[in-house]
Amino acid sequence: MINVAILGYGTVGSGVFKIINDNNSHISRRAGDEVKVKYVLDLRDFPGDPVEDVLVHDVDIIMNDDDVDVVVEVMGGVEPAYTFVKRALESGKSACTSNKELVAKHGAELLTIAQEKNVNFFFEASVGGGIPIIRPLIECLTVDHIEEIQGIMNGTTNYILTKMEDEGADFDTVLKDAQDKGYAERNPEADIEGYDACRKIAILASLAYEKQVDFEDIYTEGITKITTADFDYMKKIGASIKLLGIAKKVDGKTYSMVAPFVVYQENPLYNVKDVFNAILVKGDMLGDVMFYGKGAGSLPTASAVVSDVVDAVKRQGYTAKIYWSDTKRELGGVDAFTTPYFVRVSVGDSSDEASVKALKSKVEEVFGQVDFIDGEKSGEIAFITKELSGSEFDKAAENFDIISRIRVS
Ligand code: HSE
User: In this structure, are residues 104 and 215 in contact, taking their beta carbons and an 8 Å threshold?
Assistant: First the structure.
């Protein structure tokens, strides 16, 4: 018998409880032992809910019970999750979590403790919710050097951008609609400012490049400045705008960024719409491989958590080797991050044909060769630059009244 304790009976915790109970014989057969939820920890009471039979309010009951084999942490936030997971591992219990804040900040340390205690620390659900991405990255793509990861890793922002694109609605209207439907939090900052995606790409970059990538070092830009006018241009060039988390290696240097990017139809991420997530991995031998599915929600996320529980049971007695050292990996700066740019420049007061022509000449003089986008909106011109580093772009941009600029993937 394998006894599981779930810390937190919220959206994901209730999903984990339901999956372990509803699919019990299937899960137990796959794990090779009967899996049972012995405790659920939550401060709240849930009168009438089947969880009542196993609900506890005191974490010590779980930590002091030697019969608990696996602790599932689905509370979110760094504390007290960190203290509880550390304590679980130190008392010889495996731990599985969906908590990206915890993993991004303390993943390397918790993996080391798991190794010392001969147990496992798994976190499949911390990136991409129900999408298998962590295990494929560390167990399947072991041959390849990972050249680049590009991911749509936040469902809320992908929903907002999709609605802006498809319905021509502005950001504030769509955000309110997303909040009314429960897709966006009442305080949406972590999603719309890119902080959530930042933790997720920090985890993937740490795993792909085997050293600690601190999320604080990742340049992060949200989607609040994207307008419907930007999307009008995208329709003209057969592209979309997606909030991407990117990690890549160029000439031995690691770069990472979260920002809105222009994504052309040829990129498989172009078709990832609504609340879906997808992660595109480029291996030096394999080429491109994409992982697609539901990046949030109770059952999809819980499905990934329970798959970790099954894995932890199968590996009882030894620790899976996960290469993520706590040595810090220095990142290349945003100034050196090189991409083409989509740019809209104001023509200013004199928008007659001659002034527009003169402005276009100046653009080519300053930015080098660009592709102008036909059918500009009144009072502006729009174009795509060649590849420029962040500092080259900023220097060139000083010469113009820039309405908007979005990097091109
Ligand atoms: N707020 C996140 C999202 C939930 O919208 O994708 C999953 O981490």
Answer: yes
